[in-house]
Amino acid sequence: MLELVKLSKSYGGRQVLGGLSYRFEPGEFVAIMGESGVGKSTLLNIIAGLDAPDSGQVLVDGTPMSALDDDAATRLRRSRMGFIFQAFHVLPHLTLLQNVALPLLLNGGSPERASDMLAAVGLGGRDHDFPRQLSGGELQRVAIARALVHRPALLLADEPTGNLDPDTADAILRLLREETRASGAGAIMVTHSHAAAAMADRILVLTRAGLQQA
Ligand SMILES: Nc1ncnc2c1ncn2[C@@H]1O[C@H](COP(=O)(O)OP(=O)(O)OP(=O)(O)O)[C@@H](O)[C@H]1O
């Protein structure tokens, strides 16, 4: 469902992505690794629509995102994608349940699955807590529940287990795998963790030359 065509991006005259093209297979779980500063988060942000390329296209289901107006692009991302980004903060004035239910409500669905997802990330019984009552790792798990709750076709994750201890990280990675497999979803996970990357179907390394199979 996702194809990148000749993406280029520079910051202040310094090229980060130089004509990168790649076609992701539907339903595939891909890990992207690579040196610090090479442009992994930039690439993920462009796919997510949080940043715009200088040139090139992101095609979702064959449609160039740049051909959609803002509302249509937002609707498509909201319904088809799930995000686990450090910067995507959990909303402080909503309970955990309300936070996780948000993608369901925004897509016009019923919020029933939200409580199950909180339990699945190990936060059962804490539906009515507020984010300020949680540790960093627990907040990360709320973000993970929220990213999966509406069964997105594509999950985008930037260091999803960065704040978690090894056992919790392992459990969360298994959950990401199970959830994406059950719904036939694809996933793109940026990570420095070899343990996390090992559970992907494919490991790609981002270099100046583009995305290459590890
Ligand atoms: N908004 C921005 N303004 C200016 N430069 C930026 C911006 N975002 C990223 N960069 C630069 O682009 C380069 C790539 O950054 P990016 O965060 O994509 O790398 P990364 O591969 O994800 O790194 P890491 O593994 O350290 O997280 C870096 O040199 C960074 O300083």
UniProtKB/TrEMBL annotation:
Organism this protein belongs to: Massilia terrae
InterPro entries in UniProt: AAA+_ATPase, ABC_transporter-like_ATP-bd, ABC_transporter-like_CS, ABC_transpr_LolD-like, MacB-like_ATP-bd, P-loop_NTPase
GO MF, any single term: ATP binding
Residues covered by the ABC transporter domain: 2-214
Protein name per its UniProtKB record: ABC transporter ATP-binding protein
Keyword RNA-binding applies: no
Keyword field: ATP-binding, Cell membrane, Membrane, Nucleotide-binding, Transport
Any single Pfam family the record assigns to this protein: ABC_tran
